[in-house]
Amino acid sequence: MFFFISIAAALCAISGATQIQTQDAALEDIVCKEYNTYYKIKGSCDSYVECTAYKATYKTCPDGMYFIRDVVWPTYPCAYPSDAQCDDDDTPQQAIASQDCKNQYGFFASPLATRSDCGKYRMCVAGKAFEMECSMGLAFNPETGRCDWPDLVPSCNADEFLGFKCPPATYDEFGKAYVVNFSIPGSCHYFFSCMENVARLLLCDSGFLFDSTVNRCVDATRVECHEGR
Ligand SMILES: *[C@@H]1O[C@H](CO)[C@@H](O)[C@H](O)[C@H]1NC(C)=O
After folding, report:
1. Signal peptide position in this chain (predicted)?
2. CATH 3.90.15 corresponds to the domain 164-222
3. Which of 191, 217, 222, 225 to mutate to test the pocket of ligand 1 (most atoms within 8 A of CB)?
4. What residue ranges do the domains of the chain occupy?
C-alpha cells in the first residue's frame, strides 16, 4: 500500500515540475526526467547536474561563478554573480584564492582604484589578475561587479572622477529639474548631461557629433567640430 502512495506522490511531483527547466535536486536522488537538461543542486550556488541522454553527471561551476537557475540546455550554465543568482540559503564552493584573486574567476575591486579614479577594476581568470578599465565615464561598482554610472557607486567621488560638477539645477513650473547638456572643450563625441545635479558622461551615437550651439548631438555632416585630443 505504502508503495503505491509513494509512486503516486512521485508522479505528482514530476508532473508539477516539468514546467520549469531547472529544479532542485538532492544529491542522492538524481534521476534525469528529461533527455537533456540541467538541475540545480539544493543548497548550492554553483553545483548542478547535467543530464545528457538521461545520463546524470554532477558538475560544479568554476570558482567565482554561479549556476544560472533558468538556463536552458545546452547553454553553458555558469555565469558571473552579476548575471546569475545565489540565494540566501545557498552556499558556493570553498573559494580558491590566489595571491591576487579571491576567486579564480570574476570582477573585483582593483587596488589601483581610488575615489577619484574609480574606473579601474580587476578581472580574474584562472586565478590570474588582469587590471582593466571601464568605458570612459563609467565607474566600477564592487557590489555588483559591473561598470556603472559613477553617481550610483558609493565608493566613487563622481565629481572628481568626471572632473566636472553640475551647476545648481533649475526647475520647471511643476518642480521637475531641467536636463542640461554641456559640451566638453576639445571633444566632438562626448558631452556631460546634468540631471538634477548628477553628471553623466555621454557619447553621441555613431554618425552624430555634439553641436555646442544647440547642446545636443546632431548629424555629423551638419556640425563643424575639430577634435583637440
Ligand atoms: C542632450 O543631448 C541628447 C543627445 O543629443 C539629446 O537627446 C537631449 O535631448 C539633450 N538634452 C537637452 C536638454 O538638450
Report:
1. 1-17
2. no
3. 217
4. 20-92, 106-161, 164-222
Q: How far apart are the first and last CA of the chain?
A: 83
Would you report the helix, strand and coil content of the chain in percent, each value rounded to 5?
15, 35, 55
Does ligand 1 lie within 6 Å of residue 181's CB atom?
yes
Phi/psi for 64 (5° steps) reads 105, -10
Q: What pTM did the predictor assign?
A: 0.80
CATH architecture of 106-161: Beta Complex (2.170)
Tell me how far apart the alpha carbons of residues 215 and 212 are, in angstroms, rounded to a whole number.
5
**Ligand 1 centroid to residue 122 C-alpha, Å:** 34
Q: Is residue 84 within 8 Å of 99, Cβ to Cβ?
A: no
Q: What is the pLDDT along the chain (229 residues), one digit of tens a residue?
A: 344 334 333 433 433 344 445 667 666 567 899 999 999 999 999 999 999 999 999 999 999 999 999 999 999 999 999 999 899 999 999 999 999 999 999 999 999 999 999 999 999 999 999 999 999 999 999 999 999 999 999 999 999 999 999 999 999 999 999 999 999 999 999 999 999 999 999 999 999 999 999 999 999 999 888 876 4
